[in-house]
Design goal:
The protein is of the alpha+beta class. It has helices at about 10-15, 35-40, 45-50, 60-70, 110-125, 145-150, 155-160, 175-185, 230-285; strands at about 20-25, 30-35, 75-85, 85-100, 100-110, 130-135, 140-145, 190-195, 200-215, 220-230. The longest helix is centred in the C-terminal third of the chain and has 55 residues, at about 230-285.
Length: about 300
């Protein structure tokens, strides 16, 4: 033992006042010290637990505990403490201690509320009518909710572990890959694509993607929110068709209008020429037939023939 190292007795006294759940065991798994907070949670007296196997505290984590004891493993695990049908979930940190002999310290924090909120959130996502698919950064499906089942026909059991491109038509896979890359690089939030249902139907969809990160900010997955826009695309197509028809009609009307205007201008010019000729004939003493424009230029009098 180093000169500045605390003794087991000193460390045990420190644990008594700890705000966390704490227990020290020997490397053979026998409990040597436990603080009042953990005793109260377990409902044990100190004499009932000291010297007993640590499995009394972690009955469902025997494999993890044996690994820690054998290898002086340092790490994290979660264990449930069940008392009067009231389960408290504790996140434990384990580490080896070099004292007079080797010991293992288990220090735990209550994470029941956090896990409850997490399970609640998972249930909300799971039951959401909106299509929510979570995929790994490599493109494999991690989670698949009820909305995805309803829209695409596959169950969660069928799709978890499968490639996301299983629901993408072959001729749109490259397009989908580019879209996912934009999501991963956080350069885009939305794109339009096509998806393939279990019964072989191809539908138009709008896809929104959010990068999911861990507590250190490192990306771990993509959450995709998918909306069926087949009917919207159909309406857009019909609207474009009607707009095109109207544009064609407007073009035809424009041509007809120019034709009519041109014809009217020619008639006006023709009337002017006839009027000029009539005036010239009168001046010369000649008789000129004046056409009736309302009767398709028919003669107005028979006398004009004579």
């Amino acid at each position: 033992m180093k000169n500045n190292d605390p003794s087991l007795e000193q460390l045990s006294k420190f644990l008594l006042s700890s705000s966390e759940y704490s227990v020290i065991t020997s490397t053979n798994g026998k409990i040597t010290s436990v603080n009042d907070k953990l005793l109260h949670k377990l409902g044990f007296a100190k004499n009932d637990i000291v010297g007993k196997s640590v499995n009394l505290i972690f009955p469902e984590n025997k494999n993890i505990i044996n690994n820690i004891l054998e290898n002086r493993f340092s790490g994290n695990f979660i264990s449930g403490l069940n008392r009067s049908n009231n389960i408290t979930y504790i996140k434990w940190f384990s580490c080896g201690l070099d004292l007079d002999s080797n010991f293992i310290l288990f220090s735990g924090t209550d994470v029941t509320d956090i896990l409850s909120q997490s399970h609640f959130f998972e249930n909300v996502v799971r039951q959401s009518a909106e299509v929510i698919i979570v995929i790994s950064l490599s493109g494999n499906i991690i989670d698949w909710n009820i909305g995805a089942e309803n829209l695409l026909g596959y169950t969660k059991k069928e799709m978890v572990g499968q490639s996301f491109f299983k629901i993408t038509p072959d001729d749109h896979i490259e397009e989908a890959k580019k879209c996912l890359k934009l999501f991963r690089d956080e350069k885009c939030k939305d794109c339009q694509s096509k998806k393939l249902t279990k019964d072989g139907k191809i539908i138009d969809v709008s896809v929104s993607g959010n990068l999911v990160t861990d507590s250190l900010g490192s990306p771990v997955s993509l959450a995709l929110f998918i909306r069926d826009i087949t009917e919207i695309k159909k309406q857009e197509g019909e609207l474009k068709y009607h707009v095109a028809v109207l544009e064609d009609k407007n073009k035809a009307l424009g041509i007809l209008e120019r034709f009519i205007v041109s014809r009217e201008l020619k008639l006006i010019e023709l009337k002017k020429q006839i009027s000029d000729l009539s005036k010239q004939a009168t001046k010369n003493g000649d008789v000129l037939v004046s056409p009736n424009y309302d009767s398709n230029f028919s003669n107005t009098t028979e006398g004009a023939k004579n």
